[in-house]
Amino acid sequence: MNSIENHRNFLKGYLWDKWDELDRDQEKGIPSPALQKSYDDHAEFVELVARKDFTVGNMPLLDALERRRSRRRFTDQPLSLEELSYLLWSVQGITGDNQARRAAPSAGGRHPFETYLAVNRVDGLKPGLYRYLPDRHRLLVMGQVDGLDQRMAEACCSQRFVSTGAVVFFWTAVPYRSEWRYSLISHKMIATDAGHMCQNLYLAGESINTGICAIGKYSQDKMDALLGVDGTDEYAIYGAVAGKV
User: Fold this and answer.
1) Residue ranges of the chain with pLDDT lower than 50?
2) 160-177 burial, b for 16+ CB within 10 Å, e for fewer?
3) Is the pTM higher than 0.90?
4) Spatial separation of the C-alpha atoms in residues 225 and 232, rounded to whole Å
């Protein structure tokens, strides 16, 4: 079960030649799952700066690519709400006439992720947990958590730099969104899709002098508990720290 060979097989596309044999819910006529978790319309929200109003992020792509580094040292300067809006839109913002068309690519337009934020220093935002809602480009307020910066660092296996950023992004996977279409092939696609998202964040960060460092080292149980997800139908899969440098 935990052999190197089995984990290597996860990375192979060996099931594509068995596509017609896969048990796929899409082929059964089962309705597709929503591309975003539901929320209470009466919850507390934070409206973000709209794409049409962005004044940041004008660095040429070649320059952003050349500058891209993983950065773990941050200043105490907060992000502006516009900068956070820009980063969120760059990662999962809707760019077309439906939720499947977003800034980052996803196999089959399934977008199996939810974006959570642990906010430490953002102008106009109280420190606390938030969830990004691509459908309205706004934040759902999840509430304050005592010692959130330290709890986030602890869940990331006590990596100290995690507590020093302005914001920690953490993405969860909702695997059925991809499984509905791709069955057993979906899990490799979810992993590659996560990389697309985080690279968008890196490049967007460089373009506004905001350092990014991806996080792959974390306790699954601690992070799932901190984000309030069940660990089965939704679970933490990847993260990144963002802060001014």
Assistant:
1) none
2) ebbbbbbbbbbbbbbbbb
3) yes
4) 12
Q: What is the pLDDT of residue 67?
A: 97
Q: What is the pLDDT of residues 194-225, one digit of tens each?
A: 999 999 999 999 999 999 999 999 999 999 99
Phi, psi of 233 (to 5 degrees): -90, -10
> What span, in angstroms and rounded, lies between the C-alpha atoms of 133 and 39?
9
Q: What is the pLDDT of residue 10?
A: 84
Radius of gyration, CA atoms only, the chain:
18
CB atoms within 10 A of CB 106: 23
What fold does the segment set 42-244 form as a domain? NADH Oxidase (3.40.109)
Domain ranges for the chain, please list them: 42-244
Token readout for 12 is 């192979």
> 218 CB contacts (<8 Å, ≥6 apart)?
155, 156, 157, 236, 239
Cα distances from 174 to residues 13, 51, 188, 190, in angstroms, run 21, 26, 14, 9
Chain center to CA of 149? 18
In Å, how far are 3, 5, 179, 188, 189 from 9, measured between CA atoms?
10, 6, 18, 10, 13
Give the whole-angstrom CA distance, residue 196 versus residue 191: 9
* Residue type present at position 186: S
What does the block give as tokens for 81? 């709400």
